[in-house]
Amino acid sequence: xxxxxxxxxxxxxxxxxxxxxxxxxxxxxxxxxxxxxxxxxxxxxxxxxxxxxxxxxxxxxxxxxxxxxxxxxxxxxxxxxxxxxxxxxxxxxxxxxxxxxxxxxxxxxxxxxxxxxxxxxxxxxxxxxxxxxxxxxxxxxxxxxxxxxxxxxxxxxxxxxxxxxxxxxxxxxxxxxxxxxxxxxxxxxxxxxxxxxxxxxxxxxxxxxxxxxxxxxxxxxxxxxxxxxxxxxxxxxxxxxxxxxxxxxxxxxxxxxxxxxxxxxxxxxxxxxxxxxxxxxxxxxxxxxxxxxxxxxxxxxxxxxxxxxxxxxxxxxxxxxxxxxxxxxxxxxxxxxxxxxxxxxxxxxxxxxxxxxxxxxxxxxxxxxxxxxxxxxxxxxxxxxxxxxxxxxxxxxxxxxxxxxxxxxxxxxxxxxxxxxxxxxxxxxxxxxxxxxxxxxxxxxxxxxxxxxxxxxxxxxxxxxxxxxxxxxxxxxxxxxxxxxxxxxxxxxxxxxxxxxxxxxxxxxxxxxxxxxxxxxxxxxxxxxxxxxxxxxxxxxxxxxxxxxxxxxxxxxxxxxxxxxxxxxxxxxxxxxxxxxxxxxxxxxxxxxxxxxxxxxxxxxxxxxxxxxxxxxxxxxxxxxxxxxxxxxxxxxxxxxxxxxxxxxxxxxxxxxxxxxxxxxxxxxxxxxxxxxxxxxxxxxxxxxxxxxxxxxxxxxxxxxxxxxx
Length: 710
Description:
Layout (H helix, E strand, L loop, with lengths): L1 H5 L2 H13 L1 H17 L4 H24 L9 H26 L4 H11 L3 H51 L4 H53 L4 H34 L8 H9 L3 H17 L4 H26 L3 E2 L5 E2 L1 H17 L4 H6 L6 E5 L15 H16 L6 E5 L7 E6 L2 E7 L5 E4 L14 E4 L6 E5 L1 H9 L3 E3 L1 H15 L1 H4 L2 H14 L1 H8 L4 H13 L7 H12 L5 H11 L1 H6 L6 E7 L1 H9 L1 E2 L2 E2 L3 H20 L5 E4 L1 H11 L7 E4 L8 E8 L2
Parallel strand pairs: 3-4, 11-16, 14-15
Antiparallel strand pairs: 1-2, 3-5, 5-6, 7-9, 7-10, 8-9, 12-13
């Protein structure tokens, strides 16, 4: 019974099926079979079958190289080249053994030799030599050279591509997972072309081995036929030469196919297009080329005697093709294309419809994964109407993503604020030309731009006597200046008349920059602050350890947010922490600490507002300032409402006078009223910077350009 269990056919079949289903086992078996072919004589039927499989395998490789869109989609090709070369060499050795031992090597070799060369071994030798020259000198040499150059350029460009990925990651265009995928693809590309450089040498060596084997077969067969088999010289030469040529052709034709496949895979230049479509678009896209070819064929058909009919057939076909392309271009010149519903529409309308459908399908996606994504809240996101989607499409000239990367970098440099990645996406619920900016899911700003126009902004330098611009009158979103949306034709005239002309993406980017600066205090998160502390710890571990014993992370974060809210840079975080240690022992209130830190950073703060080395500021009359000091209660100004209104009106009037002089708007006041005053004007006069006398170093010359009095 035990024996029946051990030798159970069902169990053995299941075991063999499991072995066969493992592709690694099959590949190992294939390698063992190739080695066996080198040592063991094969029956003629098996040899015929192996040659046919070699034909089919080579043709399959050629078709794969034509259908893949990029070389890395067939990254195993160099290894496959090695196995195919070994298989072909094993077949040639097996065929040589059969030819020399038996004078026969199966029906495939005999049929190929008879069919291709018509039984004439002289013709066979010539055709074999021609195939060898084509394969070895033309195709293999060219593919090898292309592989060598591609490998060199792939390795040389690898550092630059890695830096480009890091730049996109830092700009927030891609996330960490996408960056890892791109880095891996760059590495795979370099490895692929390097291995292809070596793999092409297998094909070259195979071509040389084929001609050597053919010469050995002919010479040895001639000797064996005459000495051992007692054939005549002519009979021996005819028999063995014909068989050798048949075997050579049966091996060289698949070799040529694989060599062509090698050339195709290493010369692929554009991964985003199908090879056939790419060739057709570049070779047959111009009707002039096809038309001139048709005329040339017609003239040659008339001039060459006896070849009129084939030339006229080709000329007629090319002429009809030219006519059809002319009709298609005429229809396209009218700006109309056929839409999905069969209606004729302009290309712009078709693009808009495609964008609308894509956005609508995305918003109507109710799959579990899509619904879960809705729960994620981005720190900063920009939503665009469907007509503004092209601003982020690089293929259509959109540069908004690059500008956003520059914005993040510049804000980081100016304020020391680690701006998180900004997600930009479309929103069908917005008007087509509108956009809105969200901070943690809440809308903090919005605006609109004309996607195909230019914004001409009046900065005060416009020639008032010039003819008004033709376009849509609007207001510049960042600074509230009067502006006009104009077309390309009006752009030059606007610049000539003194307008500042901006593209839609630059208008949106400028507005986004001001929004980020205005909400800098809210953008700084606890997670980003912890990362900043880790960076400080790398260079000044003592200060981080000491401050953690004095004040909590939440209080430090609140101080930094208050500083950023008034555009005070926190780049020198180590110095800020040192000042906090000193003052936090007295009072841990964030507003108190922020005021003390401001006084310590006075030189840095004032340097932002200097004009010709001087600090020109709006000040208060001593009586007004004294009254404000006396009215401070619990951190706020408790002035009479009418007096508060008068102060704001006077500050507004002073702001206009200061800006007309080209000076930065700065208010200089007593330290006791600085923060309370800031709270009053932060909604109506956001352009003002409010400084205290204690923040102005003795080395800076401060002077009053306007005095506020009641």
